[in-house]
Specification:
4 helices; Thiol Ester Dehydrase, Chain A; 11-stranded antiparallel β-sheet; about 260 residues; alpha+beta; about 20% helix; 2 domains
C-alpha cells in the first residue's frame, strides 16, 4: 500500500551542521524544521510564497502536530520531503501530511492541523484561490503517537528561561519547532538528574498542541513529568507556560541509545 500520493512533488531538504548532536544525528526539533521547509517550498511552488501571505493579510498557523521518527537522521545524509493537504473543515481548519525520506527510506512522518488566520491572528475563511492552489488528497494514513502504559503521580521537573528577541520567526513569535526544543530540554535535564547522558536520547515520537503564541521577552516555564512507557521508550508529558497562561501541551516519546 502506498503511503504517499504519487502525484505529490519531491522537495530536497538540507539540514545545517547546528541541527546535529554530538552523536552526529539530527535533533527532533530540527526534523520539525526540515518538515516546515518542505511545506514552505510546496506552498511557494503553488504560488503562495511567504511574501504573498503578507500581501494577502493571511497565514496558516499550526494548532497540533504529531511526528513519528522511524530512525535518526545522520549528518550529511541527503533527504527530501513530500507533503499534501488531506482535509479541510469550515474553510478555516486544514490537515496536512508531511513525509521525510532518505532515498526510498521513510525516516519521519507528520500530521499537522493548521488554522487559517489573518495577520493579526483572527480566524478567517480560505477563499477559492487557496483551494485552487492546494488540492486536497484523501485516503492516506495519518500519523499517530504509539500506544503506551501510563505511569501516574510522577514528580514534575521545572525550568524557566526568557525568550530572546533574536528567536522570533517571520510571523513575530517563537516558531512551532522551538516548542519541541523546550520539551526536549526538559527531558534532558530530567535524564541528567537521574545520572543518564542526555546526548543518548533518541526521539521516537511527539505531539504538541499549541494554545498561545510566545513572544520576545516573555518568561517561559517548562514542566516535564514521566507519564509512562511504550515498547522500551519512556513517555513524557509537558506544559509550556507564560505566567499562568498555558502556551502548549505536549507528549514526547524518547528512548535511550546504549553508550560505549
Amino acid at each position: 500500500m502506498n503511503t504517499v500520493p504519487p502525484e505529490t512533488r519531491t522537495f530536497p531538504v538540507t539540514l545545517q551542521r547546528n541541527a546535529f548532536s554530538p552523536r552526529l544525528v539530527a535533533r527532533a526539533g530540527d526534523v520539525w524544521r526540515a518538515m516546515q521547509d518542505v511545506v514552505v517550498d510546496q506552498s511557494s511552488s503553488a504560488g503562495w510564497t511567504p511574501e504573498r501571505y503578507v500581501q494577502e493579510n493571511c497565514m496558516f498557523v499550526v494548532r497540533t502536530m504529531t511526528v513519528r521518527h522511524h530512525r535518526e537522521l545522520k549528518i550529511a545524509e541527503p533527504i527530501h520531503g513530500r507533503t499534501w493537504p488531506s482535509r479541510a473543515r469550515r474553510e478555516m481548519l486544514f490537515t496536512r501530511q508531511v513525509r521525510l525520506f532518505s532515498g526510498e527510506d521513510l525516516v519521519a512522518g507528520a500530521s499537522q492541523e493548521w488554522a487559517f488566520l489573518t495577520r493579526d491572528l483572527q480566524p478567517t475563511r480560505a477563499g477559492k484561490n487557496i483551494f485552487d492552489a492546494f488540492q486536497l488528497i484523501e485516503g492516506y494514513p495519518e500519523v499517530e503517537l504509539p500506544s503506551f502504559v501510563s505511569q501516574a503521580d510522577q514528580p514534575t521537573h521545572v525550568f524557566d528561561f526568557t525568550v530572546w528577541h533574536g528567536w522570533m520567526d517571520p510571523q513575530g513569535h517563537a516558531n512551532h519547532a522551538a516548542y519541541v526544543d523546550y520539551c526536549d530540554e526538559g527531558v534532558a535535564r530530567l535524564v541528567a538528574e537521574e545520572g543518564g547522558d542526555p546526548q543518548r536520547i533518541v526521539p521516537v515520537a511527539e505531539s504538541v498542541h499549541f494554545r498561545a503564541a510566545i513572544g520576545a521577552g516573555e518568561l517561559i516555564t517548562v514542566e516535564t513529568a514521566v507519564a509512562g512507557h511504550s515498547q522500551g521508550a519512556r513517555v513524557f508529558k509537558h506544559r509550556v507556560l507564560s505566567g499562568d497562561r498555558v502556551c502548549a501541551t505536549a507528549t514526547t516519546v524518547r528512548a535511550l541509545v546504549e553508550g560505549k
